[in-house]
Write a structure and sequence with these properties.
The protein is an alpha+beta fold. The protein is built from 15 helices and twelve strands. It has an eight-stranded antiparallel β-sheet. Strands 3-4 form a two-stranded antiparallel ribbon. A two-stranded antiparallel sheet has the order 5-6.
Length: about 375
């Protein structure tokens, strides 16, 4: 329900309870959207307001506040299994798949955990050299060969980034894997964070070679299928490998299922989809961004807001799966991408909204 309609419904309910207000409402209904008039009406109504009405008013305010960030198109909030807010703008709706950009890195993390649990991979300490024998036979480099799966998961491979200014050159190359592996080491493997979509693409290729299935087929069988999720588009590199960590399209309803499953330690509808131990391991802090005030796990971001740990997958332009375990809350946000500076400003406003508006509302609901 859109916020002005919500306010009208609250007033109607009050008028039914107070018949003397009915004629007033009928006579002055045209003034309902004028802020001063609304404030006066609410002064008359408030003494008899119910908790449900108060909650509706607060929810409507939250919706208005968030959509002041004009780029946002989806805003979904679920707490303790109850859908509190589901609002869309423009042509967005619950089932429309959109490019979630780098939020798909969280998906790659889940798939790696499933592959390890099913025996396709030995574990996070497995070295990447064995998955690219042809490249390293032609270009031997013991240090690069010693990069581990965990190094890729935590963006600590040490290879120069293929993201940001280097992204275009990488995706225009005819062999993405060789391009990534040929990048110079600017940090020691396992050392400082170097954010790079090339690292997550290597994970997608490793999944394909270890499972003898495409990353998409593996995801459909062991993750999206059990969650009853339909995949939208998913880009592939020139050699046919599905892109690891970018350009995957999923709907808000799909993102909500994924966030709920992750926050429930890998369980969905009483079925263990992803190992619980893997979820816990993924959410530990291994490194920290040099460009944002966020910590990093296995391709999931983390920060503290108002005393709560906030875990999230984040894609360029404002695509998010946000989990606040202490408040039993999953929030999904999708947006239209804007210029880089505006994206940064919108991200700052979003987290300010979560800290200063949403969290307080969620805390109050849990307290009853």
């Amino acid at each position: 329900m859109f916020w002005p309609d919500l306010k009208i419904e609250v007033l109607k309910n009050r008028c039914r309870r107070y018949p003397l207000m009915s004629s007033f409402y009928s006579k002055y209904a045209f003034m309902i959207f004028r802020p001063v008039t609304l404030a006066v009406l609410l002064l008359f109504i408030t003494p008899g307001a119910t908790n449900a009405d108060t909650a509706q008013i607060k929810t409507g305010t939250l919706i208005d506040d968030l959509f002041d960030i004009r780029s946002i198109r989806s805003f979904v909030v679920q707490q303790d299994g109850e859908l509190l807010i589901e609002e869309y703008r423009g042509r967005m709706h619950a089932g429309r798949a959109v490019n979630i950009k780098s939020a798909s890195k969280g998906i790659i993390s889940l798939l790696v955990g499933i592959a390890i649990e099913r025996g396709h991979l030995d574990g996070v300490d497995q070295k990447i050299g064995e998955f690219f024998p042809d490249y390293f036979k032609a270009h031997p480099d013991p240090e690069k060969e010693s990069i581990t799966i965990q190094d890729l998961l935590t963006m600590r491979a040490g290879l120069a980034s293929t993201s940001l200014a280097s992204y275009g050159r990488w995706v225009l190359s005819d062999n993405w894997v060789e391009h990534v592996l040929s990048r110079p080491l600017i940090e020691r493997p396992g050392g400082e964070m170097v954010y790079s979509t090339g690292s997550t693409h290597l994970l997608s290729v490793i999944l394909t070679r270890a499972t003898a299935m495409s990353t998409r087929a593996f995801a459909r069988k062991y993750l999206f299928g059990p969650l009853q999720i339909s995949i939208g588009g998913w880009d592939r590199d020139p050699r046919g490998y599905y892109m690891g960590g970018n350009n995957l399209a999923l709907s808000p309803s799909a993102l909500l299922k994924i966030g709920s499953m992750v926050m429930n330690q890998g369980v969905y509808q009483n079925r263990q989809i992803v190992p619980g131990d893997w979820i816990a391991e993924s959410m530990q802090i291994y490194t920290r961004s040099h460009f944002n005030p966020y910590d990093y796990g296995y391709l999931w971001w983390q920060r503290e807001l108002k005393g709560h740990t906030v875990q999230f997958a984040w894609g360029n332009g404002g695509q998010y799966i946000i989990m606040i375990p202490s408040l039993k809350t999953v929030t999904v946000i999708t947006s239209i991408s804007k210029r880089k500076g505006q994206n940064r400003a919108d991200r700052q406003r979003l987290f300010s909204f979560i800290e200063n508006s949403l969290i307080g509302h969620l805390e109050q609901r849990l307290r009853g």
